[in-house]
Amino acid sequence: MSEPNARSSSATSSTDARHAFETRAVHAGWTPDAETGAVMPPICMTSTYVQDAPGKPRNGFEYSRTQNVTRFALQDALADLEGAAAGFTFASGMAAVHTLMLTLKPGDHVVAGNDLYGGTHRLFTKIAARFGLKFTFIDSTNPEELNNLPQDTRLLYLESPSNPLLNITSLEAAVKAAKKVGAQVAVDNTFASPALQNPIDFGVDFILHSTTKYIGGHSDVVGGAILIREESQKEDLWFHQNSAGTVNSPFDAFLTLRGLRTLPLRMERHCQNAEALAEYLEHHPKVERTIYPGLATHPGHSIAKEQMHGGFGGMLCFELPGGIQQTTELVKHLEIYALAESLGGVESLIELPAPMTHASIPPEKRQAIGIADGLVRLSVGIENVDDLLADLEQALQKV
Ligand SMILES: *Cc1c(COP(=O)(O)O)cnc(C)c1O
Predict the structure, then answer these.
(1) How many helices and strands in the chain, by DSSP H and E?
(2) Ligand 1 nearest atom to the CA of residue 162, by list position
(3) What is the C-alpha to C-alpha distance for residues 383 and 315, in angstroms, rounded to an integer?
(4) Assuming Cys at both sites, which of 34, 61, 227, 350 could form a disulfide with 207, CB separation 3.0 to 4.6 Å?
(5) How far is ligand 1, taken at its centre, from the CA of residue 162, in Å?
(6) Is there an atom of ligand 1 within 6 Å of 120 CB?
(7) Does ligand 1 have an atom closer than 6 angstroms to the CB of 190?
(8) CA-closest candidate to residue 322, choices 288, 290, 365
(9) pTM to 2 decimals?
(10) Is-contact 375 317, C-beta < 8 A?
(11) In Å, what is the CA distance from 197 to each residue of 20, 21, 23, 132, 143?
(12) 291-303: per-residue pLDDT in tens?
């Protein structure tokens, strides 16, 4: 096996650190092909590469799980946008989280936030725990809990904003607390995307993404990524990505990169629309509670303002007093918002965490962490904001 990123790495990118995020989003990871001038990367559909002599692969390209030009372009683009030393992409967000767990060893103690994506919680407690990793869940928004991490903590694993309750954890405080006990920090940055938050700037060691969401952005491809802060972690991550075979396909890498090019534009509209909807819902007489980090009433608002830039994201939650019966009625009357899990695509989606994404959590535990039966989660799309407001208004009038 040879060099991780053969064609790749910043040497081939037509961007540099002087350029703004929007410019880098368009160009990072690829320069027009030397031979043909192709402006966009090929979908390099090959499983293997011819060798010039035994053990002499051309430019290090041996086998497509190990080296693929399309995947390298996506990995390098993401690394650039997150300010990372290197990037690795995977078949799904879960494959990315799984691969990070594979770098640990039995007995290692992972302390995780208690409001996590359900699939991550399941992977930790039902799979990784079986292989001897130890998990403790804390309320990472509570400085008391954050500042008293167990001495043997190996990794602190967080989401901010979290799914579904949009809790905000101070990344600066998390890194400080982890350093005190010699632990590393991983942050799932899926909800913010690199357009709104760059955890490596705060000293976070690993950034995870479900690129299925905002990065892909069009609800047409599943994928994941890990971005690393330290060059010294590169060999280890690459070894596990290649050895476990958790890579994404060239076609998926292409689609994800195509989506990524418009991330800043899309995020700007997602944020504007979500902000307008949050303000509308907050003052609606039928709505009991509205959760959006951009609202001054959100307990994490000032921290979010400090560590996010350009907006507070496209996700929001609200609560109706009538529970599942009333929220089920609401979704029936909506015309634009599709009833579906997932998030981050151009189209607006609505889902009910209690009977849908978080149904596997026992009702008492759901209540305890704040997922009420009447909770509604919106992934606000990039449609016309007046259409989105009018659709919600007509549906709310009927429930
Ligand atoms: C969707 C999601 C994941 C899992 O990603 P997949 O691409 O669905 O495997 C992980 N974390 C967060 C925050 C998510 O929203």
Answers:
(1) 13, 14
(2) 13
(3) 14
(4) 227
(5) 11
(6) yes
(7) yes
(8) 288
(9) 0.95
(10) yes
(11) 14, 11, 17, 33, 21
(12) 999 999 999 999 9
The DSSP annotation for 369-382 comes to: HT--TTEEEEE--S
Q: What share of the chain is helix, strand, coil (3-state, %, to 5)?
A: 40, 15, 45
Q: Which domains does the chain have, with CATH numbers?
A: 21-260 (3.40.640.10), 263-397 (3.90.1150.10)
What Rg value do the Cα atoms of the chain yield, rounded?
A: 21
pLDDT for position 102: 98
- Closest residue by Cα to residue 67 from 1, 165, 135, 17: 1
Residue 240 token pair: 């596990």
What stretches in the chain show pLDDT beneath 50?
1-7, 9-12
By the 8 A CB rule, do 184 and 206 touch?
yes
Give the span between the Cα atoms of 209 and 333, in whole angstroms: 33
User: 94 CB under 6 A from ligand 1?
Assistant: yes
